[in-house]
Design goal:
This protein is mostly beta strands and 205 residues long. It contains one helix and nine strands. Helix content is 4%, strand content 27%.
Length: 205
């Protein structure tokens, strides 16, 4: 389903957090997500909609996994990824209220692997991510809305956080000034007629 707009495709192989070669895909349970297993995430968005797909290879065959888009990036601590991304944010964390913690308000990507340990899922929503607030896909040890965090993949979901362009000062050519003229200007007194200025009124909203 082509939504137009923008797209992201990221892929990596899982490695433990203490691996010599760092990977954006981390496994916290190598029995369920072996090192070397592969994950790919594709996002398409625009026009007020978003689609997120996940594909995995090399996991345990014939097993159900949970997966969701999370707010933070992956880290050595599974909790680093924060909570589930929510379109309508639950003011209470962790979010357990079914009015917020549900597949319509979050991005649920649970799947069951085949006989070769491969699996896939796609979620489509009638909204888009807020810039910079969706940063990873977390795999859980059981399907549904919760479960132990067994792996995490950092993904630069779009729209990305806004980063203002670096300011580069424009060089100004020095202009020679006569110090005598400057002194005269500093002490010159110019009569100024009093002017009545009405301050504009700022209206609240």
């Amino acid at each position: 389903m082509d939504l137009g707009g923008y797209g992201v495709r990221e892929a990596a192989r899982f490695s433990p957090p203490n691996a010599v070669v760092a990977s954006p895909a981390l496994t916290y349970d190598m029995k369920l997500v072996p090192a070397g297993a592969r994950i790919e995430v594709v996002q398409r968005g625009g026009h007020g909609r978003v689609s997120v797909s996940v594909r995995v290879e090399g996991l345990v065959a014939g097993r159900a996994y949970g997966a969701h888009v999370h707010q933070g990036e992956c880290g050595g601590d599974p909790a680093a990824a924060g909570g589930h991304y929510q379109h309508r944010e639950d003011p209470v964390r962790p979010s357990l209220d079914p009015a917020h913690a549900n597949p319509e308000n979050e991005v649920w990507l649970g799947f069951t692997t085949d006989a070769h340990g491969a699996g896939a899922a796609t979620a489509r929503q009638g909204w888009e991510f807020r810039p910079g607030e969706a940063r990873s896909v977390v795999l859980h040890g059981m399907p549904g809305g919760a479960g132990a965090r067994i792996a995490c993949f950092t993904v630069p979901f779009e729209p990305a956080a806004f980063e203002p362009a670096a300011f580069e000062p424009v060089p100004v050519e020095a202009i020679p000034v006569d110090p005598v003229s400057v002194a005269a200007m500093s002490f010159a007194r110019v009569p100024v007629e009093p002017v009545s200025v009405e301050s504009p009124v700022r209206q609240g909203r």
